Amino acid sequence: MDHPTGTRIRPPPLEIEYAMREIVNAILYQARTGCQWRYLPHDLPPKSAVYYYFGRWRDDGTAETIHDLLRWQVRESRRRSEDPTAVVMDSQTVRGSVNAPKQTTGLDPGKKSPGRKRGIATDVLGLVIAAVVVAASVHDNAIGITLLDKAAASAPTVTKA
User: Fold this and answer.
1) What is the separation of C-alpha 9 from the centre of its chain, rounded to a whole number of angstroms?
2) Global pTM?
3) Contact call for residues 76 and 57 (beta carbons, < 8 A)
4) Distance (Å, rounded) from C-alpha 104 to C-alpha 2?
5) CA-to-CA distance for 46 and 108, rounded, in angstroms?
6) Residues 57-91: pLDDT tens digits?
7) Per-domain residue ranges for the chain?
8) What is the DSSP letter of 105?
9) What is the 3-state secondary structure (H, E, C) of 23-51?
10) Which of 100, 131, 138, 160 has the fewest CB atoms within 10 Å around its CB?
11) Distances (CA, A) of 102 to 17, 92, 143
């Protein structure tokens, strides 16, 4: 981002101010509790520092790489190959908030409930391979096709679903 004076603005050197373990702890706390970023406990680094790393790792693929490495480690500890050969897929309709944008929600015709659908593909151990969130009006076949595409990209050894 450029400053009006023409100088380049860079994020503050957060690595110096906060231990990386504390940043990870704060991200894990937020993921586990689902709290808003501004309500992180005061003994954790400030939300601006935590969200900076969260956004950076999400955007550059670091978060997905960590997820894949942990999944492979769990699979190997259970004496299975790194990548699965089969996935189990399912979708679920979740009621949307009244404040949710209309473009991202829809009406599930089967259940007659408004909201979104989440589709998940897991391996036989229950570890997430792929996930997708769409409007509830999207048909399960379309969700399944998207999940299969994402599962094939994430784990090319998948042959059964």
Assistant:
1) 29
2) 0.72
3) no
4) 33
5) 40
6) 999 999 999 999 999 999 999 999 988 999 999 99
7) 14-60, 81-154
8) -
9) HHHHHHHHHHHCCCHHHCCCCCCCHHHHH
10) 160
11) 41, 19, 19
